[in-house]
Structures are given as C-alpha cells and as structure tokens.
Write a structure and sequence with these properties.
- It is built from 4 helices and 3 strands, in the order αββααβα.
- With about 160 residues, the protein is mainly alpha-helical.
- It has one domain.
- It has a 3-stranded antiparallel beta sheet with strand order 1-2-3.
- Helix 1 crosses helix 3 and helix 2 packs antiparallel against helix 3.
Length: about 160
Amino acid sequence: MTKRAKRTRAAWYLLITAAFFALDQLSKAWALKSLVPYSGKPFIGEILKFYLVWNDSAAFSISLGATWIFTILSTLASITILVLLFKSKSTAWQLTLAVLLAGVMGNLSDRLFRAPGFPVGKVVDFLQLPFNFPVFNVADICITGSMTVVVILVMRGIKLGS
C-alpha cells in the first residue's frame, strides 16, 4: 500500500472519529438543554436513566478536583492515538483507535471549553445504570468499548502494525 493510500485510509477512520465525537457533543448539548441537574429521568425503565451531573475527575470520579492533570493526559493520549492510527495497518486496530480517539477528545473538549474554564472544565455526564453505577456519557462508552476491543485484539495476538 502506498503512503498516500495509507493516509487516505486513515482519513476515513478520522471521519468515524468525527462522527462519534459529534454524537458525544450533541448528546451533551441535548442533556444540558433538556435535563434537570441531579434529577433522575427514566429512559429505559429502571435500567437506564438520564441523570445530569458534571464531573471534574477521571472515570468513576477518581482524583476529585485534578481536572488539569486529566487535561494534560488526555491531550498526550489524543496525540499518541492519532499517531498510532496513521501508523497502523490493521483495520481492526484503526477502527478501535478511531473510536477511542473520539471518546478521549469528547471528554477533553469538555475540560478545555466548559465551565469553570480552560483547562479545568467539568465533563458533562448524563447516563446512569442501576446499583449506584457512576454516571457517564457517550465519550465514556467510546473509551470503555474501544479499550475492551483492545484487550480482545491483544489476547488474539493481532499486532498494532499488522
């Protein structure tokens, strides 16, 4: 495959990234406009509720108040994922990295552009499962889902560069 063909192929995966990123941002905009903060609203019965909160931490509210650290880590992760996306020859890895990049950038954009301001903005979370499961968003689904696929790819011996 030529260098140009590789770049074209990777560019298609960036469209996937853009689509998931847009879904994340649009769903957050909807949540901010439509939901009452800290008040549950059933979506799929008691299985999935809408519950609007703001998160200044990492996943599952780890390290409360250290948003600027996660801003730096997310920025570095985004750059690394982007480089790997363009270097990988594996369709499975490129798709996985595209979805992962969307999730990381979705939450990073909240940290950069939402209140209280750059680089300590709070991430909008609005999806809640039962049993006190932490509230999450579409970006979190992208991150968790893609990391699950990463484990599967590694366990199956599928190399990043293959």
